Amino acid sequence: MVNLTAINKTKKAYTGTDHELLFLGIFQDKKLNPSQRSLDSLVENKLSEAIKFDGFIGKEDKQLMIYGNESIKRIALIGLGNQKKYTSDRARSLASNICQFANNINVSEFSVDGDSFGLQKNGYAQAFSEGLVLGSYEFKDYKTEKDENNKAESVTIYGRVEKKNLDKGFALGKAVSFSRDLGNHPANILTPSYLAKEAEKIAEESPKMDCHIFDLKEIKKMGMGAFYGVAQGAKEPAKMIIVEYKGGRKSQKPIALVGKGLTFDSGGISIKPSPNMDEMKFDMCGSATVLGVLRAVSKLKPRINIVFAIGSTENMPGGNAQRPGDIVTAYNGKTIEVLNTDAEGRLVLADVLAYVNKQYEPAAILDFATLTGAVLVALGNRATGVMGNDVALMREVKKASEQSFEKVWELPLWEEYSSEIKGKYADIQNIGQPRLAGTITAGAFLKEFVGDTPWVHMDIAGTAWGPKEPSYQPKVGATGVAVRLVYQLLENRK
What are the tens digits of pLDDT across the range 142-155? Predict the structure, then answer.
């Protein structure tokens, strides 16, 4: 899984310590600064001579390897490009590239000149640390051939860098990696019961957390007919997972985070086409986002109250499966006409949203779901589609998006769209008109279950797996989308 196990920090000079590999950043058209000139003297001016001979001027992504001496064996010069265009996300990407570079040349421990990468600035050290962890990410749990090469395990950062920012980035990187792991496990391993056990494990580690797991009988007894309708055709036991985190004042209303946890989605009776159906193991990535944030919260302990909620089941075409045309009654009493059993995630979310809204009276609700293929048509895999019922909460989401560099794009949720889901034989139906505003009408459906509580829905179907850029995204598999964004939002609220 993740190879990187430690990020250390020191103010000590390079003298007196042996370095297998040292990374040094150079901005475009900038001369060596005093610290770099001091380093140059330690390696008998090999640094300046190589720069002069090669014509290295610090262009973006340009690299130059220099062989030093017994103390500093190798120095990798990394071009940082235009200093005015340098951002924390650029630092995150560079860190990812650095870790992959070290892996490629079989180095298990390496050093970084933090000041040369701008890590003394607010947010840059955290981003760089995140990038190191995310760049080291691999998922090889089911590979039988073992890689005998060295992998990056430990990094030492030199310079005026706040260790707390490195530690925070490390924790968030690990949380995203955990979210990726969950998404990448196959559906025969990662079941609703598996998710429930992972939630329990995390909660057990924190005295501020309480975990509650509800089974299918309890889901039915509580009147969650929409959730039950999806789960009734599956042999694998369904679970509703609730974790309460009490990090704030007792009087403080919690933020609720709700995730769709469809561990496999066949489409049910409205069965999906066979090509790429294997990717439907990723239909639980909304729950992976929620559990990734839970993992980050358990390590970083923000002073805020949070409710984590997941509705998890398989959607299968068994003899007891829900049929197109069935009518079910949700937890809040609304009746739903099921016109397409492949629009199942919104049915599960409907009951979990209504439950959380009634039982916890949260200050705000955020939900995460690989909900519609339509969002891919609209936005591709570059941005998460978002919509909601509260301008202020949406502003918070957009701010956190800008800070974390996890892109979102707001779609309208005007009242006119609600008319698209009015039912013929029930209060509402679970789909709108075919091929028309599918992402928005799904949002309009969910809106029926949150009341007046400020709420934002994130459709991550395009971003939960597939994106291969920037460099800290994995080439294949789950991305751990929105974990960093949501934690940033929580921090902004403290």
Answer: 998 877 777 888 89
* Candidates 1.10.10.10, 3.40.630.10, 3.40.50.1360, 3.40.30.10; CATH matching 173-493: 3.40.630.10
Q: Thinking of the domain 6-159, which architecture would CATH place it in?
A: 3-Layer(aba) Sandwich (3.40)
User: Interior CA angle at 338 toward 336 and 340, to 5°?
Assistant: 150
pLDDT in tens, 443-486: 999 999 999 999 999 999 999 998 888 899 999 999 999 999 99
Q: Which residues contact 34 (CB under 8 A, 6 or more apart)?
A: none
Examine the pLDDT at 2 and tell me if it is beyond 60: no
Cβ-proximal residues to 431 (8 Å cutoff; 6+ apart), any chain: 339, 340, 343, 421, 438, 441
CA atoms within 13 A on the CB side of 101: 25
Query: Contact at 8 Å (CB) between 240 and 219?
Result: yes
Q: Where are the domains of the chain?
A: 6-159, 173-493
Peptide bond into 470 cis (omega under 30): yes
Q: What is the pTM of this model?
A: 0.95
Residues tagged active-site = 272, 346
Going from the C-alpha of 239 to that of each of 217, 228, 250, 290, 439, the distances in angstroms are 10, 10, 28, 15, 26
